[in-house]
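User: Can you recover a sequence for this backbone? Please restate the input before giving your answer.

Assistant: Of course. Working from this structure:
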């Protein structure tokens, strides 16, 4: 072989080696708030494998669907979920008002002392979103002294970003009300309203000189939990997700639904086991963690796997 040809081949080999290693390093650095662990490695290797066009496990971009639970998965849920705190505050303010609209006065008479869930009946979607955004700006968590929109898990934001870089389409499937999460999902997660699946309300269509609008009514009978997470994922997306993250028993069915995909998939659970950085609790998640080892679901320990939480 001529010297020039040898140098050329050597140069190409070296370039390929450096390129591959830089890509691997870049992906490793993509989760800077995560400690090195088997779980982090499994996540990175899965994303790298299904994104590699030369891999037998390669998945087409249109099938790269990721679904995340919200409360306790993307955002703090203790001592109560964001929606619960908002509803409590809104109800306390609403029930204490001296003057109400005739609609609300009638509602109060009808129900004597209406429930917290009923306090937002009669609001337009726009008014409800405004109320949620206003609350997010003023509410302070009793322990962390910041709003819930600033109590989003930093490591999970990094994971959402990494998935986006690798052409995943991410959705939220939450037991909280869909419109509540839509009120801040774009700001908190960079996810548009069409990416949110959640518990729903009934609505009344209205038309006036100002235009048409929808008024909130009662909740739909089924919350977006358990089997309804799998059902509503199919209704909303039309495909099984290949990447699912949850943290409670209410997420079991969507984890199972993902794992039953004919495509390579990964299922992940967030374990709340760090009372210093966040909270430590297992209530409502006993069954899902007992199933995790049998099903091969990956477990993220907040104490072990995350350097930072917020």
């Amino acid at each position: 072989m001529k010297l020039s040809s040898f140098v050329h081949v050597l140069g190409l080999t070296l370039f390929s080696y450096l390129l591959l290693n830089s890509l691997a390093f870049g992906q490793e650095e993509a989760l800077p708030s995560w400690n090195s662990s088997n779980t982090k490695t499994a996540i990175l290797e899965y994303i790298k494998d299904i994104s590699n066009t030369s891999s037998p496990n390669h998945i087409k971009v249109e099938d790269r669907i990721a679904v995340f639970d919200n409360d306790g998965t993307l955002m703090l849920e203790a001592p109560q979920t964001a929606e619960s705190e908002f509803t409590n505050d809104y109800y306390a303010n609403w029930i204490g008002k001296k003057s109400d609209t005739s609609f609300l006065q009638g509602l109060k008479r009808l129900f004597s002392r209406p429930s917290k869930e009923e306090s937002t009946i009669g609001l337009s979607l726009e008014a409800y979103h405004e109320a949620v955004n206003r609350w997010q700006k003023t509410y302070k968590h009793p322990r962390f002294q910041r709003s819930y929109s600033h109590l989003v898990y930093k490591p999970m934001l990094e994971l959402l970003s990494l998935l986006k870089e690798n052409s995943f389409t991410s959705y939220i499937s939450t037991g909280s009300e869909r419109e509540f999460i839509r009120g801040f999902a774009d700001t908190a997660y960079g996810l548009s309203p069409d990416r949110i699946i959640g518990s729903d309300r009934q609505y009344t269509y209205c038309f006036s000189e100002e235009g048409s609008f929808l008024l909130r009514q009662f909740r739909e009978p089924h919350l977006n939990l358990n089997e309804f997470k799998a059902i509503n994922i199919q209704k909303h997306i039309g495909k099984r997700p290949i990447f699912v993250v949850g943290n409670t028993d209410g997420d079991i069915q969507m984890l199972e639904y993902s794992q039953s995909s004919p495509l390579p998939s990964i299922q992940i659970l967030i374990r709340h086991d760090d009372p210093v950085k966040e909270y430590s609790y297992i209530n409502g998640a006993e069954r899902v963690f007992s199933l995790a080892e049998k099903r091969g679901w990956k477990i993220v320990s907040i104490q072990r796997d995350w350097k930072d939480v917020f």
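That completes the design. Residues 31-79+151-199+221-305 form a domain with the Rossmann fold fold (CATH 3.40.50.1000).
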